[in-house]
Amino acid sequence: MANKWIGALSLLLCGQLMASELVIESWRIDDKALWEQKIIPAFEAAHPGIQVKFNGVQNVEYMPTLWASLKAGKAGDLITCRPFDDSLALFKAGHLVELSEMAGMENFPSFAQSPWQTDSGAQTFCVPMASVIHGFFYNKKIFSELGLTVPQTREAFFAALDKVKADGRYVPLAVSGSESWVASELGFQNIGPNYWKGEDGRLALIGGQERFNNPQYVKVFEELARWRDYLGEGGESRDYATTNELFTSGMAAFYAAGSWEIAPFTGKVDFGVMRPPVAKQGDGCFFTDHTDIGMGMNPASKNKEAAMTFLQWLTTPQFAELYTNSLPGFFSLSNHFFEATNPAAREMIEWRDQCDSTIRVATQILSRGTPKLGDELAEVSQQVLLGTVAPKAAADRLEQGLKGWYAPHQGNQGKGQECQGEASVPAVPVSGAIGTEPAAPVVPDGQAPSGASATQPPSVPVSGAVAPAPPAEVEEALASELEGAQP
């Protein structure tokens, strides 16, 4: 008789385990082994009743594939979230659960949550996971051979490039000339924050107090144009993969870098990291620390309680340290204190204590209309790098594009905003009236509170300015994106 009860109980437990299988949708296909060998086993060891599978899709195919899967009811339980509009569109369409009151969200500062919130900040729909940092890598062997020191100012940076060029054995600056996103993200949006003063300038662009054809933005293009002389033979046609091989083979002194390359480069070349140079010694420094990855829940999940447990685990110190140290160059956005073990990653994350950080300038609100600022910025940045468009003409084109659809750039510029360093953004609440707010959040009964607690205040200093309310044209643009984003 006892055996029958044991058998029935085993079947019941088996059914519960099967019901607690979660699938993660992600564009980070390169991280599949990391998730399967480190992150998922750590979670499953702490939660033996839940099994997790990682479904990776190629980066460029991720959003179309995800929209199709969600519409067909075939998407996984957990959705890896891109920042800002891609995920906001999913939330507005009812494809992400609201997580505003989820236990553990208090472990993330407001700047970390904002890429996965409605414009009003009232609703949060993804757990912040990681950011990536922009800067430069340098070859330590070449530096030793040529007697170079790490430059902190622009003058010193170009002097070092000149010295490498004069030596003739190495490419001074490894940058892909053939891929426009590189010129934008690793060029313009890498060195730019030191010109427009980080968040103050970015928010002033959104508010219309600053314009892309103001001197501080033209000067960024002027510096980018100077890079062309240091790309080496064939630099104009060199793709991103070849550029990476050039640096890791030891044949380039500097590399315009994203921290996501720390892990792939480690062990291939002895390199150090360098902040974007400032105008003169002692100037305040700014850098791009871009909120890149979050994770949310599919409302159609049949395992909501298990999915919520997983999301709450993402808010813990265990995950923050595990993720950051298993994937050097992707930095936890939580308040938890821990030490990064990779030397290059550790130095980059320390920039947060030395400088003010910002995010990519075209990411929030400004790419919702036509022409899309992100696309325009990539195109003109590449043209400036290759010498086919003058810096002032590039800046004028960006401003003209915004002026065509974005109301804050259609009137007169705010008084006193023509000069660099005078950004002053009024604290105007951000409107959340883009589309229709979704129904009440889907929260399972009896969700377990996270055992994690914040151990340190936010280490990333950001401006206290608040983004202005987007105009009706922006609301219409995102509404159009909601429909157009579907395959």
From TrEMBL:
Q: Where is this region: Disordered?
A: 405-424, 429-487
Supply the InterPro entries for this chain: Bact_solute-bd_prot1, SBP, SBP_1_CS
- What are the record's GO terms for cellular component? periplasmic space
Q: Which residues cross the membrane?
A: none
Any GO BP annotation = transmembrane transport
Among Gene3D superfamilies, the record links this protein to: Periplasmic binding protein-like II (3.40.190.10)
Q: What is its biological role?
A: Part of a binding-protein-dependent transport system for a sugar.
Q: What is this protein called?
A: Probable sugar-binding periplasmic protein
Organismal lineage:
Bacteria, Pseudomonadati, Pseudomonadota, Gammaproteobacteria, Aeromonadales
